[in-house]
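Budget justification, computational time. The allocation requested in the original proposal was used primarily to generate structure tokens for proteins on the priority list. As evidence of use, we reproduce two of the resulting records. The first is shown immediately below.
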Amino acid sequence: MAKRWEDHSLPSNLRAAARSNLYIGMISCLLGVGITVVGYMELWSWVDLLPGSQSYVVQMGFVFLGIYAFQQGERNRWRAQVASSRLSDYRRLHAGIGAAEPVFGPQVIRGTYQEYTKWFAVGAVLTSGGVFTVSACFLPPPEGLGPAGWWALRAFFVLLGAFNLIVAKNAFRRAVRLRVGVIPSFTPLPAGSYVLYLRNFSDDPQLAKPFPMLGLRPLIPGLFMLARSEEERLETALRWAGSPMIAVGVPGERAPNNGILRMQLPNDWQAPVRKLVRDARLVVLVLGRGAGTLWELGEVMRELPPERLVLVNPMKRAKYEEFRSVAREALHAQADELERTTGHRWTPPELPDPPADRRTPSRVRGIIHWSRDWKPTYVPLPRVLPPEDYLLGALDRALWAPMLQMTEHERRVGAPHG
């Protein structure tokens, strides 16, 4: 068995196809950007591809052709990245322990089709308006307007166009989220049939933001497509552990994030969360300083074997050190309360030291996993270069050791839970 990510080889035909599709997708994305630039050059009269044509019409045609090429390239890259996951391939070959299919009952979509249509239309109109507004910078200056006034007007067009595109992205995201289904009430699921995702509700807006593609900053990809969020990438990167991934829904939330399936819980939520923790195949907890998250951290450490727990760190070193101090105090307070009420003494595991900070395009900075005797290991996300998707590729590498530990644990206990 491969002890390192680098030692596991994908089937040669899959490896070759995925690699070529990653490069084809990247080239298509860059070609899409290039086609758009050529359209602007045509309007600026730096090139004359179609002499005598209406330059504005030609330029807009190039812009939308570039958008289409970028979209197709990014879809190719995504499919190739998912297909080339060595975690999933290893689990397919060595896991050997299936799980019962979860039974959810009907899911509820809280947004209406009319609301979805309205927000989608707003996004489409604002996107077109933003593209046309930015394009107006390249038109001839109005008569009687001096150079200084024309440059000021151009700056206004650029700012207005960028504002339209940013608002359009939010409108599209709102439209998508209004059609996301949720499990409307607590539903006990078959043990080992799901992965549980726990986080501070306040982290949702950050994890729902579009993730930079090909190293480009968000505004540029936002012009070409609605980029997948970090939450969607986390859900995809953890499919090796089982599907679906379940998260506790924000009470009363009308438009949940797209990515991880939400389950609404009653006001007395701690007992249902404890039940979900005990029966999960894997628990993934995003570290955060909320009281609920600190309670959940104590629960997963007490209720789970260490091989079924992965912590995700979204904090820089200084913030993580502060959190570690707060968590140590909170966990020891929970241990004291447990001893007073049950007589059972529990010693909370220590969180590990973090490595030095470095620049990363992802909000996720590293993961923490545990040995059988609760010794922690902090794994910073490794550097991953294009054409790979940074977060999917980095998580595929960083989660290798936890995946091996969980696979060996399941083989030892003979079940996908416990």
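The second record produced under the same allocation is shown here.
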Amino acid sequence: MAASMDHFLSHTPLVSAVPRELLLMTADDLLAREVSYALKDMSYNVSRFRTPERALESILGESRFDLWLGDGPEALFASKGALLRQIRLSIDTLGIPALMIVDPHADRDWDMVDQLTASDFLLKPLDATELILRLQWVFQKEAHHAEFMADMAVSTGGQEFAKYVQRDLASRTSQNRSAILSLIEAFGANQAMAGGRVAEAKALTEAAYLFLAMNLRRVDRMVQFDQTRVAVYQPDRVLQTAEAAFALMRTEMEAQIGKSLSIGMAEFPQDGGSFEELLKWADTALSAARSRPGSIMARAWLSEGDEPAAVSRQVLLVEEDPDTVALIGMNMKTLGYELRVAPNQVDALRILDEQVPAMALVGRCQSQRSILEILKEFRSSRVGIGDPPIVILAGPADESDLLQSLEWGVVDFLRKPLNERELQFRITRVLSDR
């Protein structure tokens, strides 16, 4: 292996010592050999399939794979994409992440990443370091999410609630049936918890839960999702009827027990196709609602009569290399975003204080501080909501910090030198999730 690979392996622990079972789907014998060679000293067991049909049969028959790894053969796009849709439904249902290997010059391969809702992708020709980085990144993100779900802030009931809602949403995908996921909070509960007044926060949350349980109709599942939030799932409801029901509930609760509710709602499928997407949207809406006692945040609307919250058209770039700045600036202009460049963390923090950008791209700055140090300073100075998603521009010296960066709000990374099409694709994916 190359020296850079040795450096990476010596500084980056494996996510798990348990061998991972990878399904490699490719008809390309050379690619299969490259993958096997790259992973020969790693804790991965690779089962190779030449056709997507055989790979799908194996998934449905054994369900033992931890990840789908593969490229895009012609068979995937036959029958107007029916096989592609079947694979997507299967891996989504079984919770198998997909890491796709993309020909950067093939439009169809880029479409495949979106159609499979792949967790991640990497480019041909295959680079061994990139492959290992992306595999560990995908598994670390999965582990990070699992830790979130298992954290004390999410009850066992919350985990079961999440699983139930995800299963029900999967059944609705092909039936064109709506559903509403809401996060509800007694006004002041979050502030009480943040201030260390745990008993007060608990009492407020329990009062809200009890009132909702006794009075709210058309609820399929409801759970105290964490220490301050109650999650409510209402299948076959649309936003308008759900909002009307919660408006009535808020008025009744205020009249009866003198407590107000802050509510954030997300509608399936308009606001997302998975539990995680709906939860993120509802949480964003709830966060904004906290500043307005009792307001209902529905799909980013502040309240009746208000305009939707403005979406920032600015992107922050922390980078000292002029060529990288020029390349990203050109692409941001094409996408309709204004690029604000900060050569150091001091300027970056000043820009963040002026306006929260749609996204932050973080590379090397003039102070020569590590990316991880910059991320920690970002988060320590900006506690709470309103933080932009962060994409790392990683040089060789930054690769050993990538997995740790997930703890500091990083959603993706690009390795230098940048591939322009990959840059556009990853940035677009992050911005479309806002």
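A brief technical remark on that second record: The mean pLDDT is 80.
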